[in-house]
Amino acid sequence: MFYKGVSEEKTLAYVAPFRGLHYNPEKIARLEDVVTPPYDVIPPLEREAFAARHPYNMVHLILPQPRPGDDQFQNRYTRAAALFRVWQRQEILVRDPAPAFYYWETDFQIEGKTHTRTGFAALVRLEPLTGGVIRPHEQTFSAAKADRLELLKNAQANFSPIFSLFPDPHHRILEALRRGGPREPLMDFKDVGGYVQRLFRVTAPETLQEVHRAMAEMPLFIADGHHRYETSLNYQKFLKKRYPQASASAPFNYTLMYLANIFDPDLVILMAHRLLTGPRVKHLEEQGFLEKLGEYFEVARLPFPGAPQGAGAALLQQSLMETAPQETAFILLGFGNQAWRLKLRESVRQNLLARQMHPALAKLDVAVLNYLIFEKILGIDAKAQDDHEACKYNSKMEEVISAVKGGEASLAFILNPTRIQQVQEVASAGLIMPRKSTYFYPKVMTGLVLNPINEEEEVVIPE
User: Fold this and answer.
1) 58 DSSP 8-state letter
2) What is the pTM of this model?
């Protein structure tokens, strides 16, 4: 039910420099007013706030709004494409004269500690997800892919980079870019999330060649942006039918990625906790549900009720941290703001789960939660989990607690973050995790560098 095969045939990863499109510093003085998070983490109210913040904010391109009377010729996608062309004509967005890799540093804080995640923006040749070069790890939602494909067909540009990881234990690639780049950044600012972003344009031919050759030895693991990658594949298929004689260097055969090292100690994964609403869980009987859970888990009530919100979150986090890394455990919230810790019985993993899924998936808390609780006990299948109203996700524990306490969710499940080694193991085995199994923090911001897909300009590989 979870397996997806991957070819063993060796294919190289083609990572290429490109002429990036970015905001013109002579016309946009404050990048924090125009750069946004990716489209899929911008709720409606925040979308309106971004739109009001600046007339050239990226949200006007990545989240165009429908209007009464829209049809197949005039709609939100055609308006976004027209706006994108206007911004280029007005030189709000300008394109660099020479191909470059864009070395990227992001400073952020979490749990009182400052991190600096490093990566670089580049074009990556599109490969089938079963080919072993580009490796996904999560399932995707079909509605999101259809929406993104319409935007891509009309705008003909990659607005948001796909976040992918490469295995470089010796840190040679990013170090080469750091050494080969200029001392002064192309951009240096604090974005709306409070993260400091620095972007350096690297054009030295020897550095471009060194990085291209080194990356060809490595598989790439998609960390965030599975929808966008599959959308790029669909767009490639669409244009190959239109231009069957196009060369392998045609720009639609590539997509924009932000590439980070999987061995970066500042690579942070948070967990997307689960919140359930709707008739399947609204009228659950507490004792009966706990008894069913007891067939698979050791169920322990936690002294949670009455704790202040911040203290409650700390208490639940401490309870999860007491679990050994090889064990599966999560917190259940519900039934009048009560809390229980559920720890998987090892016999269940060895007997039941061993028959149902690959060992790499049987180690994942989210896979265990989905199969044993969502599917077997609650009867919430994959289609029901696609319902954004019935099954929601949130990485902030305090907000999850508030949602249950305020009645916005009937049940919630708080999980430990998926570990980076698990992501690599699952992707390498050709497996797919449940949706929202990882939340790489922080998200890669949209608007620092864009990739226009110019049909007349081929991608140049530095040989």
Assistant:
1) T
2) 0.89
